[in-house]
UniProtKB/TrEMBL annotation:
Matching Pfam families: Nckap1
GO cellular component, one term: SCAR complex
Official protein name in the record: NCK associated protein 1 like
Source species: Nothobranchius furzeri (Turquoise killifish)
Gene name as annotated: NCKAP1L
One GO term (biological process): cortical actin cytoskeleton organization
Amino acid sequence: MFFLLQICADSKLRPSFLTDKAMEPAIKYINKKFPNIDFRGNNVSMKQFICTILFITTFTVFILCLVAFDLKSYIIMSLNFEFTKNYLDLIITYTSVIITLSRIDDKKVLVGMFNCAHEMTNGCSDPSYPRLGQMFVEYEHPWKKLTEEFGPHTRSVTAALLSLKMVYPRRNLPAEQWRSAQLLNLLNAPATMMDPACCDTMACEYLPLDVMERWIIIGFLLCHNSLNSNQASLELWKMGLRSGIYLTLIRDEVLNIHKVSEDLLDSFKGYHKRIADIKECREHVLANCGAMHRERRNFLRGALKELCKVLEDEPGLLGPKALFVFMALSFSRDEVLWLVRHSENMPKIKMMLSFTFGFTNGHWGVLKATQNCINMYVCPEEESVLFSSFVSTLSALSIKQVENKEEFDFRALRMDWLRLQAYTSVAKALLPMKDYTDLPKVMNLIQFHTRMVDSLEDMLHETSELSILCFYPRVFEKMFNQSSEEMPMKRYLMSFPLACSHFSQCAHTLCPEEVNILEKRSLSLCVTFLDQIAKQTSGVMLEICAEQRNLNDQLLPKHCAETISAARHRKQKKQLPKNKEVQKEKPGAESLRKNRIIETNMDKLHLTLTELSSSYTLCTDFTVFNHIVVPTEFLLSHLEIDFVKTFSSRIILKMINYNQTTQEIARPTDLLAGIRTYTTSLHNLSCYINVDITRLMKNVLLQQTQPLDSNGGPTITHLYTTWYLEALLRQASGTLIVHCPTMQCFVSQTTDSELTFRAEEFSDVSELQALAELIGPYGMKFLGENLMWHITSQVSELKKMVIENMDVLVQMKNNFDKPEEMTILKKRLTGGENVLKRTTIIGVILSFRLMVQDCLQDVRSNRIVVITQLTFIGSLLREVTLNVFELASAAGLKCNIDPDLVVAIRNMKTDNTSSEEEHKISRLLLIYIAVSLPILALDPNSFYNQVHGGHNNNIHCLATAINQLAAAMFTVQNKNIEQQLKEFLLLASSTLLQLGQNVEKVEVKNRESVYLLLDMIVEESPFLSQDMLESCFPYVLLRNAYREVSVQLPSAP
């Protein structure tokens, strides 16, 4: 019925036939003529919902109420709790159904259209239609009709309600009285701490307050005569009116108790005083009720915290003090429901607990029950059977059953107790319950403890179920948002998505259409809350990482120059320069504070993280409509998304600080230190929450090894590849930056045009190792592919120059041993300097690649110790296939043949050129380089710098270029590499020896430096040997060359 009310009120769910304009005349006709309708309309399948549910709910329930009255039962809460509770629930359910039915505006249309459709289909009206239609007419004004029906039941209903007089006032006390009575306090009497908590009305102690208020207010409205004739009824009713403004009928359908009471009693004579009482109670609610419930919440907040701490420290108290736990849950739930009904803010939500039960009370219950049975002189047969069943069931219990972990089921015992209440509560019972008041006390105690054993989930559901929040999504979200803003409440935020797991209890098998709607709403709220919690946690974690990175940045070596300079001045007793800035605080100064009350930003962030992380410890997973929800997975997902998004867009760009215009960029070691700080800070999160941070960092940092991340933004690999190609290697192609084999780095030379960076600060071993660790093998592969692209562009130009001078090169190849012919041919040869320059650029790029590969191998050997044995495999790489070269190169091992260069040169091959022509061009290219080497002696920068271990114009990189190019080109062509290099060595030796025949001093100025190139070529080549070199070039010349360059100073450029 509630679902029907909702879909009729919601424009999105409203049935289409109710909104169809063609049906408007029929709808108006039905409303006007109902229930006497002669109409032919569409077939509407409403029989299951209307003709069955409404009929059974209204008439059958009402008949049960009459039966209870006719029996003239003694309905008293303290004597027969279950019987009285079911009786009052029956009345309230019946009333709620009638009131809810009256709020369905389209009920006549739906029933009338169904009856017409039934008549069209079956030829007659539905048999239930006349009674149902008559009921709709009679209950047009439901309250008036209900009071008429319950007039004869006033005595029994009043008796049942007045039995709450000992329970409801005690439950509806202000917080001051709770505090003075030390309610829920386990520490106020240490001597009796282990004594079982019990009372005469066990079940009444955790009976929901809103249930009792519905009984009292609606019950006395139905039997309003009692308000004028019984002062106790009036006082109890006024106490209920002072509890609030609204009362729940069903879900989010509420009853304005003061307005309904005033309207109803105003229609009767003699109730002017009661109307005045209603107005007085309403004024009292508006003035005091909000403050009273606020104080109750404040009290419960502290009491629950203390109770949880005591039970966590002493879990053995859960058995004897279980009643306190359920009372605390019930009281907290009452306040939550009151807030929801009145759309107020919710500062706290209760915590779920788990319980165990000890059997000490069970034996005591057996003895008391047996004693009562013996003292009864007259016991009817049916009651005697029930008593015997009680005694036999309870006497059979033992500790061994608990030790053997047997499952208990006491539902039959509790059903027998309810049956016994019915037998002994009627007026003419042979064994009246009212004469044996000790019996219900003992049986209620037994019932409570048996439920603790086999119905714990039902007890928790009864005292802590919050499914009502499903129907107040706006209020629920508002409560969450307010709790998110308060620091003490952040640790309880997980209670909001946990409450969504209760929403499945709203579904009912009689209304399957509602399940999908409830499921979508529950999952939507749950996901929203989890996303918000994860978003807050992720944001705080990233802020902590940023703060830690700033602190770590202060410890970098580059920031200690000022400290060293100041210490040097103090040691030399010199005054600091006047224009010098005031010395900054040393790292760690933020930890020194005079007052601990002063909180730093880091303190606040860690406190927030601790509170948020505490919420994740409430549960590892929970179920929402058969969907298993894992909160930590939401956190990991958010961390990954936020970290990837901010890592590339903000963190990386900020830490790298790349400026394409000025070619400024952070050193790889600085960036690596910052990323390690982020990683360490994120790993600290695992100390709070059980999350796999290693998996997160792998997923995030793995994207940085690719050219673009998942969002399409630039990565570390892309930025550093661009910088090293566009800044460092481009400058190294000139004379501004020199490759230094001795220090294994590039060194900036002092020139008039100063660079914006120092090459050695970005290319030494530590920096390139940091780069290798940052971008990994995948990033190195991307870097290598870009390097190969630049190499192939140079090779293409070299091949064009070879083709232009092919005839001359062929003649020089055939006449290399004829100096006169070679002199003439050299004059015809063009572009020799350009060839050497482009080959030098290739050599510089390949030298940088070798440096990077060596650093990758160092990083790999440190991080993957098991694969260090690949070094032994590397010594055998001469005799393996190219596929193994690719594997070894990816691991950073040095290969005789560069697989990436082989692939790049193979891709250069065009269909128009045959293999023989390619081989010829490759051979002539080596000859071109060999015969052009003497030109280098004319360059003043060709001097060999002993400190750097290379030449000032990077021509020593020719050795790397020649060896790698020859190996790659002839591997593609499947030719003998050693034979081709021998030919090159022979031509190069011959042309360089001719330098000694030239007497012009300018030409031979750096002759010895150029001689050393031959030794470098042979030294780096895996295919040449010193014996081969000595056979074509005298070793004495090399020895003299080394001696000359060691005593000479470099020529001025």
